[in-house]
Amino acid sequence: MKVELLARPKTADEAMGILGRYAKKITEYPNIPYHGAIFTIGATHTGDMYDVALAHDIMGSSLVVIWGVDKNSVFKAAEIARYVNDARNVFWTDQPPPADEVFARTTIPVMQQLMNHQIEPRAYWIKEGGATTIVSLFAEAGRAKEIAERVAPEVFVGDSPQSQDAAILADLAAHGFVRGQPYVIVNFRQSGHSGIGNAPALDTGVEGFSGLMRIASELGAQPVPMGEYNPFGTAGGATLFEYWKWGSVNGLGRRAEARLLRVLVETHKVVGAVGMRSGVTDLLRYVGAPTLAIDIHPLRGTLAKGWQRTLKRERNLTRYRVVSLLQEREQETMTQSNWRGTFGASDLVAVTKALGALVHDREAPMDQHPTSTRGVRERSRTLLEDIQRMQQLIEKAQSESPTPIQAPGGRKLTAMEEIMLENEARKAGGTAMGQVAQYEIALNQIRETVEHTIEWLTDSYIRQSEDIQTALQDLYEARRLLR
What's the domain of life for this entry (predicted)? Predict the structure, then answer.
């Protein structure tokens, strides 16, 4: 693949210039007159671009629309468009994504028909998750070995007849890599806590990262820090610290960076890779490294978003495995730099077992797999009891409130009215209004958790059992009480 040497943009105008080289601007994009697949991706969702670009390539003919571009997100939008590298068929907009009803149903039969071009002549709008489905089906069809070539082909700068592979190999040697030495790549993610990405609970944390490095070392492999944090500093062995700045790929974009990882995996003894669920963690498997993705367990409620996508990959990619965290990590949803992110003791044991099984190619343990429903019966009963207790507390607080809870006419209170009533309640010597507000917030959080847990337990990935049926009865009762 031919790539351009472009300096990393320092201003929004520079980033917009790069975006304009690889994509065209549109405004009323839901009305694009196109028959076929139209993949959509948020401007900040660089972790999804590998699946979107790969699905776009697999389809042979499709469009890609990058939505939500502004002066802050344009830097990542430019990376996405440059990675897809198909200026004729990539578009961008400052608009939000289309309404949900615009999108096609991304069931497996529909996606298979799209891949085989056996579709009605109309537009099929597809979210990032639909792209993952297409990649999974491609692998299931026995073409998994083609993925590495499609994701990370040989790159040539401009019209040069020589690829970057020789320069990449020299860079790997310069950064401590030795052939024959067993390595486990440990990917560091911090985009959530740095504020430039989303899902802070899926960040690694500096102490969490050090814990993963220790696990890899205890397995007899040399851990390789990857990303923006290196606990070794200037000491230590092989490193992928800020590898995108290396001379062989600097300024050449994500395709060249992916090629560097593929060359590493194919020329050195990479026995495993581990990281929190992210696009780069998935990329490591796409270029050939046995990979363990660490996710949030669905029992954790709404924090566990997107777990089905990892299962799609696990189902059809050999030596791609998933382990889920059950324990809360301190300040895991906050946005702050240098987050510690220490793993809970039982979660650390589960990760150790899962990574050991991956490295030694043994059967994976299932006790903290996303489909493991151990403890769900007790969890669902606790949710139901929490709802009943909260409702009793609300009734008690309302009966003791020195101020009226309802606004005139039974309408919903405005934010200013709530503040005024709370102040009046405090002057009267009570805080019942504040208590009611806190209880209502807690109930809303429980409501989201109930719906998320029902969705999880009724998913086709979950094998039904008596415990699950009992849990669902409690959850349906909880849903009724919350209405």
Answer: Bacteria
Of 95, 122, 143, which closes a domain? 143
Of the listed ranges 73-77, 175-179, 248-252, 402-406, the one predicted with least confidence: 402-406
Asked if the structure places residue 251 within a domain, the reply is: yes
Q: What is the secondary structure of 321-346 as a DSSP string?
A: EEEEE-S--TTTTS--TT---PPPHH
388 and 292 within one domain: no
Tally the domains of the chain.
3
For the whole prediction, is pTM greater than 0.90? no
In the block, tokens 């993949």 appear at: 39
Query: pLDDT digits over 322-353, tens only?
Result: 999 999 998 888 777 778 999 999 999 999 99
User: Which DSSP string corresponds to 177-218?
Assistant: --TT--EEEEE---HHHHTSSS-GGG---HHHHHHHHHHHHH
Torsion angle of C-alpha atoms 17, 18, 19, 22, degrees rounded to 10 = 120
Both 204 and 326 in one domain: the answer is: yes
Using the predicted structure, report yes or no on whether residue 411 has a pLDDT greater than 70.
no
- Of 143, 178, 199, the position where a domain reaches its end is 143
Share of the chain above pLDDT 70, in %: 90
